[in-house]
């Protein structure tokens, strides 16, 4: 890569050594399959600890047990089909993946890794394909506007990824190895350790696949669709990924605690293209948090971190350009327990984006300063959440956002929720300053969302239905009159999301469905649907244990979508089924088998790009 590219070899060797030498910790294995626990604590919805059941915002949690149970081999595989989420992928492993939440653009969702904001400052996109699932402990998905808590880009929602961390005293090692279709093979090892007040952990993950031919253009065509090729390249498009996660901390006492973390993922990606057909990528997150329990009712924390996003492009081995961005951030937050069930939060955020590239930008750095406040209160059967935030940005000036939510419990496990929120999206460096294609006069996109939900919690099942409508003004789109991006369009997204979790005849069911109606509100494409969003989507995961066996099925279905703004290229809907099985060989050793896309369904989520066909994979996991 342009910067010094570390091999990770020394760190991997250390992790292997420590995990191998670590003494085994024997304990009764936890159940492999369990229903969703609404009492599980989350932090993303309010920036404070609350439970899924108490959160007024629609929240979904994917924990480590669910990740391993799904046998997902990538983050896009884990997220696809979930309520409110549409994915568009340009091929298999390592290929460009964009995510749309509640119909919002792919750069209108905030993504955090251990509290550090992710994303490229140039494109505004998050490299979902380069975040290894083996390093993830849990994911919290919060749908709806959250700019009043997280600032720019939180129009569709917030997704926070937490890397692995164990809390048990002593050492807990683990390892896995696997292989399957298209020359895929992988291995990884890791451990967590705690002794007294100190703790430390590490995980390494390696993946390699020969891939398949991602572009399905069979005859030469000038820049065929999204493939950007003038003639076919019938070769395999492989991918290699090395990833390492380190974390550690120390509890100085009951009041002071320090936690540090670092995650690095390096990728080598082959694809089809005229301008470039190979890239080396780097995703890195480094950060830390110092927390202080100032008293029974006061908590203060200071967090800081950096996200690095780099990509070096090559065309048949010849350098074809490089981009690199650093996103530095810091947050000071104080929480005050005013009374039982009533919390007041106040804080300040700082964010700085920097660009380094062989492409010249008129401006290559900008900063944002913000102050925010939030009140949460419970009054009998009523719950209230109110938040406000003021941002001051170097490029697009000052902006104020707010949010308001109310909930009412009315017996029998039922609760209704209503909410309103405003949000905005800052223009990216490419939209503002890319030579000959940027417009430095752009302002932020602005949105308002209203939502209404009803939820029911029973002894064996929990259900939730949420409806929403979002209006976006000053949508950034290409202006033919200027030949540049401009704030010229409006958009409307409305829809509903249904989720259900529970047990049926011994089978544990985790199901969701979404309905989405989008409309471009102005310009030549007024009345058209926004591209690459499926109008209907559904996902169901069904699992059951039979002694040493654990069996499961994942079904994902999505309706038709348009691939372009003009609504001339239609991609039909599809449904796929993944079959999976586990066999517990010993309390520490488990063999997993998965048959993905079992019926070999041929489909596309981006025009001209093949999705994987039928694939099999075997994984052996060791976790004493």
TrEMBL record:
GO terms for cellular component: cell outer membrane; pore complex. The keyword RNA-binding does not apply. Keywords: Cell outer membrane, Ion transport, Membrane, Porin, Receptor, Signal, TonB box, Transmembrane, Transmembrane beta strand, Transport. Residues 187-597 form the TonB-dependent receptor-like beta-barrel domain. It holds the Pfam family Plug. It is found in: Cell outer membrane. GO terms for molecular function: ABC-type vitamin B12 transporter activity; porin activity. The keyword ATP-binding does not apply. PANTHER family: COLICIN I RECEPTOR-RELATED, TONB-DEPENDENT OUTER MEMBRANE RECEPTOR. This is TonB-dependent receptor.
């Amino acid at each position: 890569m342009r910067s010094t590219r570390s091999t990770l070899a020394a760190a991997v060797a250390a992790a292997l050594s420590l995990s191998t030498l670590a003494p085994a910790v024997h304990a009764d294995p936890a159940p492999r399959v369990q229903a969703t626990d609404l009492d599980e604590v989350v932090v993303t919805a309010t920036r404070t600890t609350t439970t899924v059941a108490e959160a007024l915002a629609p929240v979904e949690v994917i924990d480590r047990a669910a990740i391993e149970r799904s046998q997902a081999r990538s983050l896009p595989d884990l997220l696809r089909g979930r309520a409110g989420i549409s994915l568009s992928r340009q091929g298999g492993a390592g290929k460009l993946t964009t995510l749309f939440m509640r119909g919002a653009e792919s750069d209108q969702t905030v993504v955090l890794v251990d509290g550090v904001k992710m994303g490229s400052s140039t494109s505004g996109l998050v490299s979902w394909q380069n975040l290894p699932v083996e390093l993830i402990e849990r994911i919290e998905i919060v749908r709806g506007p959250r700019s009043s808590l997280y600032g720019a880009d939180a129009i569709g929602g917030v997704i926070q990824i937490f890397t692995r961390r164990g809390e048990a005293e002593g050492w807990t090692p683990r390892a896995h190895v696997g292989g399957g279709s298209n020359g895929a093979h992988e291995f990884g090892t890791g451990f967590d350790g705690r002794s007294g007040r100190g703790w430390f952990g590490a995980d390494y993950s390696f993946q390699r696949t020969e891939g398949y031919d991602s572009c399905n253009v069979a005859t030469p065509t000038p820049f065929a669709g999204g493939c950007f090729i003038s003639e076919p390249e019938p070769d395999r498009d492989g991918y290699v990924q090395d990833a390492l996660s380190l974390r550690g901390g120390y509890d100085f006492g009951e009041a002071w605690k320090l936690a540090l973390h670092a995650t690095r993922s390096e990728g080598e990606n082959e694809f089809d293209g005229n301008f470039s057909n190979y890239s080396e990528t780097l995703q890195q997150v480094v950060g830390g948090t110092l927390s202080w329990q100032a008293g029974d009712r006061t908590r203060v924390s200071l967090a800081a971190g950096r996200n690095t996003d780099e990509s070096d492009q090559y065309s048949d081995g010849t350098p074809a350009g490089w981009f690199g961005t650093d996103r530095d951030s810091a947050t000071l937050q104080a929480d005050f327990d005013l009374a039982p069930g009533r919390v007041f939060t106040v804080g300040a955020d700082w964010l700085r984006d920097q660009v380094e590239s062989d492409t010249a930008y008129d401006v290559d750095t900008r900063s944002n300063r913000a102050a925010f406040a939030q009140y949460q209160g419970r009054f009998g059967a009523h719950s209230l959440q109110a938040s406000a935030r003021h941002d001051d940005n170097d490029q697009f000036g000052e902006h104020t956002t707010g949010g308001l939510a109310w909930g009412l419990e009315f017996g029998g496990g039922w609760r209704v929720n209503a909410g309103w929120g405003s949000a905005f999206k800052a223009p990216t460096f490419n939209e503002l300053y890319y030579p000959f294609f940027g417009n430095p006069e752009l302002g932020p996109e602005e949105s308002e969302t209203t939502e209404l939900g009803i939820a029911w919690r029973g002894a064996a099942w929990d259900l939730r239905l949420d409806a929403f409508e979002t209006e976006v003004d000053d949508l950034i789109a290409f202006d033919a009159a200027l030949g540049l991006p401009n704030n010229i369009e409006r958009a409307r997204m409305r829809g509903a999301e249904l989720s259900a979790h529970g047990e049926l005849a011994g089978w544990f069911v985790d199901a969701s469905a979404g309905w989405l109606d989008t409309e471009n509100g102005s310009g030549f494409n007024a009345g058209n649907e926004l591209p690459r969003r499926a109008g209907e989507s559904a996902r169901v995961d069904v699992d059951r244990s039979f002694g040493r066996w654990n069996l499961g099925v994942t079904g994902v279905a999505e309706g038709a979508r348009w691939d372009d703004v003009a609504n001339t290229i239609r991609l039909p809907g599809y449904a796929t089924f993944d079959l999976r099985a586990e066999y517990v060989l010993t309390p520490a050793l488990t063999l997993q088998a998965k048959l993905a896309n079992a019926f070999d369904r041929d489909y596309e989520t981006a025009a001209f790009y093949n999705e994987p066909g039928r694939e099999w994979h075997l994984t052996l996991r060791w976790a004493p």
